[in-house]
Amino acid sequence: MKKPAQTLSLSLALGSLLILGACAMQAQAPAAAPAPGASGLSRTLVGRADVSVPGREAVIARVEVAPGAKAGRHTHPGDEISYVMEGEATLLIDGQPPRKVKAGESFVIPAGVIHDAHNDSKAPIKLVGVYVVEKGKPLASPAP
Asked: Of 121, 117, 144, which Cα lies nearest the Cα of 129?
């Protein structure tokens, strides 16, 4: 007969393997999605989830704008909520004065509003972006 400690250890090990297996099955390979017309911007999708609003989903991405690069004028089919992890850039949102954003700050861009970001520094700016967008539409579309 097995000792209670051995049974507990075996149960914990089996439970851990089941959890790891479930996570591996749900994991999606990150996909790079460059912004339209932006050569110095990279967007790596790290997650997707349904939200409580029918026809919408949350898309989570790591975003990086290279030193001296511009994101390019574009829109999203839903709200963008971003948090600056590293660096700083000038955020240009149509109808608003330009503003600097830097590490530790966040910003929100409403759906369909044309915007751009310029990184005039010598270091990349790194953000985490959450986009609550219409399902089936491109994450970003170029703007004039």
From this structure: 117
Q: How far is CA 68 from the centre of its chain?
A: 21
Query: 10-38 pLDDT, tens per residue?
Result: 333 333 333 333 333 334 444 444 444 45
Tell me, rounded to whole angstroms, the distance of Cα 77 from its chain centroid. 15
Q: Round to whole Å and give the CA distance between 45 and 59.
A: 7
Question: The pTM is what?
Answer: 0.73
Evaluated on CA atoms 68, 72, 77, 78, the torsion sign reads positive
Q: What is the dihedral of CA 138, 65, 116, 29, to 10 degrees?
A: 10
Vertex 123: Cα angle to 117 and 127 (nearest 5): 50
